[in-house]
Each structure stands twice: as structure tokens, then as C-alpha cells.
Design a protein that fits this description.
The chain is mainly α and 348 residues long. The protein has two domains: 118 residues, Orthogonal Bundle (Cytochrome Bc1 Complex, Chain D, domain 2); 140 residues, Cytochrome Bc1 Complex, Chain D, domain 2, CATH 1.10.760. Helix content is 42%, strand content 2%. It has 13 helices and two strands; from the N terminus they run ααααααββααααααα. A two-stranded antiparallel sheet has the order 1-2. Strand 1 and strand 2 form a beta hairpin. Bound molecules: heme C (HEC) (2 copies). The site of one heme C has 23 residues, from helix 6 and helix 7.
Length: 348
């Protein structure tokens, strides 16, 4: 072997070697990425199934029910849930039944008729009640909790607990809760957690996110879209007279940011969120600063003020921070205050 061809052989060998180890390194990187979920395909029901122990893949389609008396009540409850204003909205045909003050549907916030993970799903809700409620500082029933959303999210008044409508909604919620564990504690309950940025809401960034991403459906004026002759919104309003009032959970920046992160723009799920935590936080802050109906007697909420969520936008508070800081942050120092002063660990 000549000296030159020997060098050539060595070069070829090193080349092959680098190629070999190079591929192994690439392979290792791929395996790591894969295990971290970088290649997960979003929104397949299989992944929700394995994640949530199957609870979301059960049959929640009321169309599969027969026409027995019981089934008809459940179907009416579902109708009330997804077409709420048609039956109990301000413009329905029976004005004595105008319990809701706006034309939102329960389904606008509890998506997929209350069966979508991280959209405050109501699967298991029947087992979760009666429950201790901080806002009233007492044990509350499911009927009282529904009326909580009636008076705030729906900007309306209480539905009588004995009414046909209340009964039908509760029967529907019982039906979607029929496979839930005894304590009603299901995966995907509530909203997707976000890392709360340690800063004030950036309102101009929130406005930019709103214009770029949300206005396509909710409108530049945030008033949504309702077709002529339709009771329900195609896209619900986010503020203004037709929206939820300032006592609603959705006006709290942390709650809204979590809802938005896991559900908006419409079509995203917890598996494929599109907004960063910062975007969700800022756009939630932007929305909550807009004008909306004002609920009376809000100062009576949370008789035990220590239980008040930190981003509740109305006083009084059990801490020295300003109302403004409770509206737009920074929230982490308020959370730290409750831990230090009351040994209460707040998450919202
Ligand atoms: C504007 C949005 C919105 C609308 C509309 C709405 N809700 Fe809610 N609802 C919420 C939010 C947000 C929460 C969670 C509040 C919290 O974190 O304290 C909630 C909580 C609930 C709960 C308790 C859930 C749990 O896991 O403890 C029930 C029950 C409920 N809503 C029923 C209804 C019904 C029935 C309707 C229609 C009549 C309705 N909601 C309309 C936003 C809404
Ligand atoms: C592709 C259309 C679309 C886009 C884009 C979109 N939304 Fe929505 N949004 C909807 C629909 C539809 C609903 C009601 C869901 C239902 O009834 O199933 C909704 C509901 C909501 C709700 C709860 C109901 C209410 O009246 O407040 C909020 C809050 C919300 N969207 C915020 C946002 C924000 C913030 C963005 C931008 C980051 C956004 N949405 C982008 C279609 C959209």
C-alpha cells in the first residue's frame, strides 16, 4: 500500500466513522425529542383517552338516547345547555322565563356541551356537589352553583330550583357524569394551568394579540357575531352589554388566561395550545379591562376574604394590594403574601 493510498484509506475510515456516530447522535436526539412529546400529533382522542383514563371517550351524545320520558328530560337539558337563549334568554318567547340577561349559552364556555377537557368540563360535577364554596363561605348545592353562572356569566337571575329547566339541566349533567368516579375528580377538570408571568399585564401586547388572532371571529370590537334570526351566537361577545358581568369567573385574568390557553383560538385543545402563556395572560388582561355589565352587591362575595381568588377585580381584599394590582397584576407577590400571612397556597 502506497503512502498516499494509506492516507486515503484513513480518511475514508474517519469519514465513515463520523457518519456512523453522527447518525447515532441524531438518533439519540430524535428519541429524546420524541419522549418529550415534540412529535405528538395533537387532538387525537386516543391521547386524551390514555391521558384521562377513558372518561372523555364515553358516549355523551344525546342523539343516541331513546325517547323514554327520562331520556327526553336529558335531551331538553342538553338543548338548554347548547341553545340557552332560545329557552331562557332575554328574547325567548316566554318572557317570564327570561332568566338569563344575555344571549350566551352555557356551551360558549363549557365547550362540547360540558365534555371538553380543560374547558371547565362538567363530567363528574354531580359527584363533586354539594361542595364547600368560598364565594358564599358555605356548602352549596349543584342548583346553587348553576345559579352562580346564571347571575354572573349569564348576567341574569336565579332559575327557580324546582323549575322544569333547572331539573333538566341537572338531569343532563347527571347523565354525562354517569361514568365518573365517586368523588367526581376527573383529569382535565377546570382549566389548563399556565405559568403566571411575574409582571403586570402588558395591555398593548394584549391588544395586538387580540387584533391578530381573536378578532377574526370575535370581531375587532369584541362583540362577536350572531346571525339574523338566530338565538345563539356563532361567535360570542367578549365584552360589552351582551357579555358576562364583572362578577363572572371569566373576568378574572388568571382564570381567563387559562381558559384561553387551552381552548382558543377555537379548535385548539390542551394537546396543541397555540398561545404562549405570556400571550394568553396579556390578551386575558386586555379583555378583562373592557367595559361590561356591572353586578350589584359584589362586596358581599367571599365573606371569608382569604378565600378570594387573587385576580378578582373588585374589593374588598384581605391584603394591602390595590384593586388595580388585583386586576392586572403582578400576581405572584399577592400569592406570596397569602402564603406568608395566612399559610394559604393560592393557585388562582
Ligand atoms: C362566560 C363563561 C361561562 C358561561 C356562559 C357559563 N359558565 Fe359555568 N363556569 C364558568 C367558569 C369560568 C367556571 C369556573 C369558575 C371558577 O373557577 O370559580 C364555571 C363553573 C361552572 C360550574 C362548576 C364547575 C366545577 O367544576 O366546579 C357549573 C356547574 C357551571 N359553571 C354551570 C354552568 C351552566 C349550567 C351554564 C349555563 C346556564 C354556565 N355554567 C355558563 C364560565 C361560564
Ligand atoms: C376561529 C374562531 C375563533 C377564534 C380565532 C377565537 N375564538 Fe374565542 N370563541 C370562539 C367560539 C366559537 C366560542 C364559543 C365556543 C362554543 O360555543 O363552542 C368562543 C368562546 C370564547 C370565550 C368564552 C365565551 C365568551 O363569550 O367570552 C372567550 C373568553 C374567548 N373565546 C376568547 C378568545 C380569545 C382571547 C381569542 C384569541 C386568542 C379567541 N377567543 C379566538 C371562536 C373563536
Amino acid at each position: 500500500m502506497t503512502h498516499r493510498s494509506f492516507i486515503k484509506e484513513i480518511r475514508r475510515f474517519t469519514f465513515l466513522l463520523t457518519g456512523f456516530f453522527g447518525s447515532i447522535i441524531i438518533l439519540i436526539i430524535c428519541v429524546l425529542l420524541f419522549n418529550n412529546g415534540a412529535f405528538d400529533t395533537p387532538s387525537s382522542y386516543d391521547s386524551i383517552d390514555s391521558y384521562a383514563g377513558g372518561i372523555y371517550t364515553q358516549n355523551y351524545d344525546v342523539a343516541t338516547l331513546d325517547d323514554s320520558e327520562e331520556s327526553l328530560v336529558i335531551k331538553y337539558g342538553h338543548e338548554l345547555f347548547v341553545n340557552t337563549p332560545k329557552y331562557i334568554g332575554p328574547n325567548n318567547s316566554k318572557l317570564n322565563m327570561a332568566y338569563a340577561g344575555n344571549s350566551l349559552s352555557c356551551n360558549n364556555c363549557h365547550l362540547s356541551a360540558g365534555t371538553k377537557p380543560f374547558s371547565a368540563p362538567l363530567i363528574g360535577i354531580i359527584q363533586r356537589f354539594p361542595q364547600f364554596r368560598g364565594r358564599e363561605n358555605k356548602i352549596g348545592t349543584i342548583e346553587e352553583r348553576i345559579n352562580g353562572c346564571m347571575e354572573r356569566s349569564m348576567n341574569g337571575r336565579k332559575m327557580p330550583e324546582q323549575s322544569k329547566e333547572m331539573n333538566a339541566i341537572v338531569r343532563y349533567l347527571s347523565w354525562i357524569s354517569r361514568y365518573s368516579p365517586a368523588d367526581g375528580n376527573i383529569e382535565g377538570k377546570g382549566f389548563l394551568k399556565i405559568i403566571i408571568p411575574d409582571r403586570e399585564v402588558n395591555l398593548s401586547h394584549g391588544a395586538t394579540v387580540f387584533r391578530k388572532i381573536c378578532s377574526e371571529c370575535h370581531g375587532f370590537d369584541g362583540q362577536g357575531l350572531k346571525d339574523k334570526g338566530s338565538f345563539v351566537y356563532t361567535y360570542p361577545p367578549l365584552w360589552g352589554e351582551g357579555s358576562f358581568n364583572n362578577g363572572a369567573g371569566m373576568t378574572r385574568v388568571i382564570t381567563a388566561a387559562q381558559f384561553i390557553k387551552g381552548n382558543m383560538p377555537f379548535g385548539v385543545t390542551y394537546l396543541n395550545p397555540q398561545l404562549t402563556d405570556d400571550q394568553a395572560f396579556d390578551v386575558a388582561g386586555y379583555i378583562s379591562q373592557q367595559a361590561r355589565p356591572v353586578k350589584k352587591n359584589l362586596e358581599e362575595d367571599f365573606p371569608n376574604l382569604v378565600k378570594k381568588p387573587v385576580s378578582t377585580g373588585y374589593p374588598p381584599y384581605a391584603d394591602p394590594f390595590s384593586t388595580e394590582q388585583h386586576q392586572v397584576g403582578p400576581f405572584l407577590e399577592i400569592i406570596a403574601y397569602y402564603l406568608k400571612t395566612y399559610e394559604v397556597k393560592k393557585t388562582k
